[in-house]
Design brief:
Elements (H helix, E strand, L loop, with lengths): L3 E7 L5 E7 L2 E3 L4 E3 L6 E7 L5 E6 L2 E2 L8 E8 L4 E8 L4 E3 L2 E3 L6 E7 L5 E6 L8 E2 L3 E2 L5 E7 L3 E3 L2 E3 L8 E7 L6 E6 L2
């Protein structure tokens, strides 16, 4: 079982959003019930500055977590756009975010996805080369709402329209891409080539 919190966001006023993987059941001292029928799924639990539960939110994600495929993930909240961003990598099993399915890949597919404040999928960006061993690390949102995507990859690939090239042979290299939160296109990017 891999349930539990994997990230949180604290607002300047102390309100907190906890990003969780939850099994169906009762949480927040019985104030919230996770009802998604899969074995476990993605939720945000919101608390005010005094620790009082405010709301639970399910995300439009369909992944059978108990399958043996690897899935690295990070989630952040953007108070400017009032959106959530999930990022990570998927191996071996398809992973569906809203209406977008990330396909099976033995070497992984990196992705960044946006969700509105109701948990509905807005857009998904994924790396284009399924043989590049992509890793997307902790995504960050700046005060204007722009998304910064750090990561690493082995072979040439692209994300959000930014093409990454590798002149280092089989050695992995880092990248950093700045994405527009509205249309998910790359504003700029850099990588070791």
């Amino acid at each position: 079982s891999n349930t539990g919190a994997f990230n949180l966001h604290v607002m300047p006023n102390g309100d907190t959003r906890i990003f969780c993987l939850l099994h169906p059941g009762s949480y927040a001292n019985g104030d919230f019930t996770a009802t998604y029928p899969d074995s476990m799924n993605y939720y945000v639990l919101k608390y005010n500055k005094d620790g009082n539960f405010q709301q639970g939110l399910h995300f439009d994600i369909n992944k059978h977590i108990n399958q043996s495929g690897t899935f690295w993930r990070d989630m952040v909240y953007d108070p400017v756009m009032d959106q959530y961003y999930l990022s990570g990598r998927v191996d071996y099993y398809p992973f569906t975010l809203g209406n977008t399915t990330i396909p099976i890949s033995n070497y992984g597919i990196g992705f960044v996805a946006a969700f509105n404040n109701g948990g509905n999928s807005l857009w998904v960006q994924q790396t284009t080369n399924s043989n590049s061993y992509p890793l997307i690390y902790k995504t960050v949102v700046d005060p204007q709402g722009y998304i910064y995507v750090p990561g690493g990859t082995k072979d040439s690939s692209s994300l959000g329209g930014f093409s990454m090239s590798n002149s280092m042979g089989t050695a992995a290299y880092p990248f950093l891409i700045k994405l527009n939160p509205v249309n998910c296109n790359a504003i700029w990017g850099t990588n070791r080539s």
